[in-house]
C-alpha cells in the first residue's frame, strides 16, 4: 500500500474534560509546541523516535458525513465532549500503528469513547474490538505495510 499522506485516527470521548485528557496524555507523551501561535501537540512515545502525533480537534465532526456523525453520536451516547486526532508517522508506519494502539488503549481505559480509523464505512472501533479483533481484523491493519518484515 502506498500512502501519500500520514493516516489520521480520530478519538471521540464522552464526558471526559479536556483537562483530564491532557493529564492522561502528559503521563505517557511529550508536549510539543514549535511556536507560541501553534497548538500544543503530544508526541508518543515521548522520545526522538516518536511514532504518533496527537492534537485536539474541535472541528472533526464538521468534516464528517451525516451518517458518520450519527454513528459517532450513537456510539458515544452524546455529542463528544472532546476529540483527538492521532497522526501516524508515515516513515515508520508499522511501528506507528503499534504505538497508536497502545496510546488509544491507555486513553480509552481511562475515558469512555470510540475510535474512527478513517478506513471505510466500518471504521468505528470500541476498546474491546481494539484489544481483540473486529470480525477477524486487527486494529489499524488497513495502514500496516504488507511486506514480509512485519512484526
Q: Can you lay out the helices and strands and say which pair or pack?
A:
Elements: E1 8-13, H1 18-28, E2 30-32, E3 41-44, E4 52-56, H2 66-76, E5 82-88, H3 93-110, E6 113-116, E7 124-125, H4 127-131
Antiparallel strand pairs: 1-5, 1-6, 2-3, 3-4, 4-5, 6-7
Helix pairs in contact: 1-3
Question: Would you write up a description of this structure?
Answer:
The chain has 151 residues and is an alpha+beta fold. 30% of the residues lie in helices and 21% in strands. The protein has four helices and seven strands. The chain has helices at 18-28, 66-76, 93-110, 127-131, and strands at residues 8-13, 30-32, 41-44, 52-56, 82-88, 113-116, 124-125. A seven-stranded antiparallel β-sheet has the order 2-3-4-5-1-6-7, with helices on both faces. α1 (18-28) crosses α3. The radius of gyration is 15 Å and the shape is globular. The relative contact order is 0.22. Mean pLDDT is 84; it is low at 147-151.
Strand order of the largest sheet: 2-3-4-5-1-6-7
Count of beta strands: 7
In DSSP terms, counting alpha (H) and pi (I) runs of 4 or more, how many helices? 4
- Largest sheet descriptor: 7 strands, antiparallel
User: What proportion of the residues form beta strands (DSSP E)?
Assistant: 15-25%
The radius of gyration computed from the alpha-carbon positions, rounded to a whole number of angstroms, is 15 Å
General form: globular
**For the residues shown, what is the average pLDDT?**
84
Unreliable stretches covering 5 or more consecutive residues? 147-151
List keywords for this structure.
30% helix, disordered C terminus, alpha+beta
